[in-house]
C-alpha cells in the first residue's frame, strides 16, 4: 500500500516515477538494465591506421592486403655476352672504320664550299672516289660508258637543291651516280655475311 501511495504522489513527476519503478524491480534484472557492455579489446591481429590519406587495417605483418615492395629487377644483359652478338658488334665496328673516311670525304665534297657547281675534283679526291666508290657501283660499266674522263660535282638534274657526283665521259656526256649505292655494293662485296644487317641498321632506304 505504501508503494501504491508513493506512485500516486509521483504521477506528476515522470522522471522520479521511473526511478521508483527501477528500484522496485528484483535485483537480478537491475544488473542487466543498468550495466553497459564493456568495450571490446583491440584485435591483436590488426588495428586501424591512416595510410596515404586513407584508413587501412594494419595486421601483425603490416598493412592487410598489401605486400612489401619488390626489389627492382636486374636488367638481363646476358645476350650481350653471347659470342654471336659480340662477333657482330666487332664486325660492325670494323665496317664503320673501313667506310667512314671515304664517306666523310664525299660529304665534305658535296656539302662544303671546297668545290663550285660543275667543278672537277682534284686528282687526289678523284682517285679516292673512283677506287673506293665508282668501281663498286652496281652499274659502273653503264655509268662510265664510252670511257671515264673525270669526276665532278654539280646540282642534281631533278632535285636542284641537292648536289651529287657525276661521271664525265670521254665523249663529253656526263651522268650522276649515287655514292650510297656504291657504299652498299662495297660492303656486300667485302663483308657478305654481315652486309645486309649493317645496311638495314645504318643506311636509309633508297
TrEMBL record:
Q: Annotated region Disordered: where?
A: 59-83
State the protein's name: DCL protein
Q: Where is the composition biased (Basic and acidic residues)?
A: 73-83
Location in the cell reads: Plastid, Chloroplast
Q: Please report the organism this UniProt entry assigns to the protein.
A: Platanthera zijinensis
Question: Got a GO cellular component term for this one?
Answer: chloroplast
Keyword set includes Acyltransferase: no
BP terms from Gene Ontology: chloroplast organization; chloroplast rRNA processing
Amino acid at each position: 500500500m505504501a508503494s501504491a501511495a508513493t506512485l500516486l504522489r509521483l504521477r506528476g513527476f515522470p522522471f522520479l516515477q521511473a526511478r521508483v519503478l527501477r528500484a522496485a524491480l528484483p535485483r537480478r534484472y537491475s544488473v542487466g538494465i543498468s550495466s553497459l557492455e564493456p568495450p571490446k579489446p583491440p584485435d591483436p591481429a590488426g588495428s586501424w591506421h591512416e595510410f596515404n590519406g586513407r584508413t587501412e587495417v594494419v595486421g601483425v605483418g603490416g598493412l592487410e592486403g598489401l605486400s612489401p615492395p619488390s626489389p627492382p629487377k636486374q636488367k638481363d644483359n646476358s645476350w650481350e655476352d653471347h659470342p654471336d652478338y659480340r662477333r657482330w658488334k666487332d664486325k660492325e665496328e670494323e665496317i664503320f672504320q673501313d667506310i667512314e673516311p671515304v664517306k666523310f670525304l664525299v660529304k665534305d665534297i658535296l656539302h662544303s664550299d671546297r668545290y663550285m657547281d660543275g667543278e672537277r675534283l682534284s686528282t687526289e679526291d678523284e682517285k679516292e672516289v673512283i677506287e673506293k666508290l665508282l668501281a663498286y657501283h652496281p652499274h659502273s660499266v653503264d655509268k662510265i660508258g664510252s670511257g671515264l674522263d673525270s669526276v665532278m660535282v654539280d646540282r642534281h638534274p631533278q632535285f636542284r637543291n641537292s648536289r651529287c657526283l657525276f661521271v664525265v665521259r670521254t665523249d663529253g656526256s656526263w651522268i650522276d651516280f649515287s655514292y650510297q649505292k656504291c657504299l652498299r655494293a662495297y660492303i656486300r662485296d667485302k663483308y657478305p655475311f654481315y652486309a645486309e644487317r649493317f645496311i638495314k641498321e645504318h643506311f636509309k632506304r633508297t
